Amino acid sequence: MLENFLKAKPLFYEEIDYDRMPRIYTKIKESIKLPKIIHLVGTNGKGTTGRFLASALYNLGKDVGHYTSPHILNFHERIWLNGSDVSTTLLDEAHLKLLSLLGEKDATTLSYFEYTTLLAMFIYKECEYVVLEAGLGGEYDATAVFTNILTLVTPIDMDHEAFLGSEIESIAKTKLNAIKKKAIIAKQKYKEVLEIATALAKEKNVEILSLETLLKEDDEEKIAYIAQDNHLAPYLVDNLRLAISALKELGLAYNVEDFQNSRLFGRLSQYKKNILLDVGHNTLAAKAILETLQAKKYTLIYNSYKDKNYKEILQLLKPIIESVELISIEDERGESLEIMKNTLESLGIPNGLHREILAEKNYLVFGSFSVVEAFLRGRDE
Q: Residue 298 — φ and ψ, nearest 5°?
């Protein structure tokens, strides 16, 4: 039911109507009971930060939802509720109620992401907390229409330049302008991010909090224990620190046990003994992977969208690449295999098409959600 409805909506647009979501939400907002929303914006790490936080809240006895995107294999992954992906029954029930509330015209007009954002909030109306992850933007993102109690800002870097601008200042400003009341800002690569945040605090009278003031010595000891116990990569530890800082700001006491089974699949996940998966798709993700995996060489199973700086990404990963095996992705934004092959040749990286997994090799599947999806679906055939 919902699946067929969403198939009629394009996933991506050449231009975005930034007025559509606020306009339609205003019409129905009285019918949606909002929980306490923690809004996540940034370039990388939103998914894992959100899942760390949502899992801890759930383990602390709270009714909690975590809205994340995109999904890898199944739409249900986007709407996590009290420890599990949402059921088909609950999705379809909420879909019918939302359709009746919106009317045919508005329901059809909304984009895929806008509609699923409203659907998620409809499902989450009985929750105490919702961890709400922005899509590619911030200020004009569909998730920004809702009142929130706290914004978490993950590392901001170059990405989605066609929509957000080609300078770090414009990207940071768009994302940071989503802050409504107070925000905690993670460790940042660019000093401009903190400069813009400081100016924004004065301009909009919002409160900017730092990890250093929120996390105490005992928190750092717990973080180190959780990281070691769960074999977290350095960048995942940074995401954990941001999630725990949110718990501190919310005044919630936590234990290390509250983070058991809290990792989000597809973020440097061990799929098999010799296969790692990561849905990252930009230079910031590539740098994080290089830092984590520099002790070994990997066969990289890869492809990229046309609008990504894949040559720079491959150059960054070259020290840990033994060879690259290109995989086809079913997405019109995907780069052609011929162009990818030419790029690899220009970098002097051995390459070919992905055909099989060999037990004696170590593999890293990386490039986007679509690459990981294509790889996993190939395992099911």
A: -130, 150
Q: Six-digit token pair at 216?
A: 């105490």
Torsional sign, CA 174, 282, 223, 85: positive
Domain that holds residue 173: 2-259
* Rounded Cα–Cα distance for residues 97 and 100 (Å): 5
What is the Cα–Cα distance from 113 to 168, expressed in whole angstroms? 25
Residues of the chain with confidence (pLDDT) below 50: 381
| The predicted structure's pLDDT at residue 331 | 84
- Residue whose structure tokens are 């995989």: 327
R_g of the chain computed on alpha carbons? 21
Report pLDDT digits (tens) over 357-370. 999 999 999 999 99
Name the residue type at position 381: E
Query: Of 241, 259, 277, which marks where a domain is finished?
Result: 259
| Token pair belonging to 47 | 């998914």
Instruction: Give the rounded distance of the alpha carbon of 190 from its chain centre.
Output: 20
Backbone angles phi, psi at 333, to 5 degrees: -80, -10
Residues 6+ apart with CB under 8 A from 39: 132, 134, 143, 144, 146, 148, 150, 151, 152, 178, 180
Cβ atoms of 296 and 362 within 8 Å: the answer is: yes
Give the count of domains, the chain: 2
Task: Output the domain CATH number for residue 222.
Answer: 3.40.1190.10
Q: Mean pLDDT of all residues in the chain?
A: 93
Following DSSP, what letter does each residue of 98-121 receive, concatenated?
Answer: HHHHH-HHHHHHS-HHHHHHHHHH
For residue 263, give every residue at least 6 positions away whose Cβ sits within 8 Å of its Cβ, in sequence order, or none: 48, 51, 52, 230, 232, 236, 269
Residue 374 CA to residue 73 CA, distance in Å, equals 9
Q: Are residues 72 and 199 in the same domain?
A: yes
Final residue belonging to a domain, choices 240, 259, 278: 259
Does 121 share its domain with 232? yes
